[in-house]
Amino acid sequence: MLKFATSKEQDGKLLQGTGQMPLRADVAGTYPEYFAKNPDYKQFADQAARTVEVPNVPNSIAIWQTFRDAYSKSVIFGQQDPGAALDGAVQKVDQLASGS
User: Fold this and answer.
1) Alpha helices in the chain (DSSP H)
2) pLDDT (tens digit, 9 = 90+) per residue, 9-54?
3) 51 backbone φψ class: left, alpha, beta (φ>0; ψ -120 to 50)
4) Max CA distance (Å), the chain
5) According to its UniProt record, which protein family does this protein belong to (predicted)?
6) Over the stretch 9-19, which tens digit does the pLDDT of each residue have?
7) DSSP per-residue letters across 45-59
8) Domain spans of the chain?
């Protein structure tokens, strides 16, 4: 099932249907017809080649939620200075990452 879902053909359908870049080394070269029709997406294809998985570390869900909460509170909702919010998140993330 996984081989089917991540095949070149299925990745092409994902790209065509959603504009979401498949995680492939050469997206633009693999799907040249799509990028000929959608030249503004070439920059995204270039960046997709540098995308990596999120590291799997202990407490990763809590770590990412801490970051998302600080980002949302400060950047999206303007309820706190971004520097202060992210500094506070760093302290909590460091504790979570160390298992404390």
Assistant:
1) 2-5, 8-18, 27-30, 32-37, 42-48, 60-71, 82-98
2) 999 999 999 998 888 889 999 999 999 999 999 998 988 878 777 7
3) beta
4) 52
5) Belongs to the bacterial solute-binding protein 1 family.
6) 999 999 999 99
7) HHHHTT--PPP--TT
8) 2-48, 60-98
pTM of the complete model: 0.53
| Residue 58, CA atoms < 13 Å, CB-side half-sphere | 7
Backbone phi, then psi, for 42, in 5-degree steps? -60, -35
- Classify residue 8 as exposed, middle or buried by CB count within 10 Å of its CB (0-12, 13-18, 19+): exposed
Question: Which distant-in-sequence residues (6+ apart) come within 8 Å of 22 by Cβ?
Answer: 6, 11, 12, 14, 15, 48
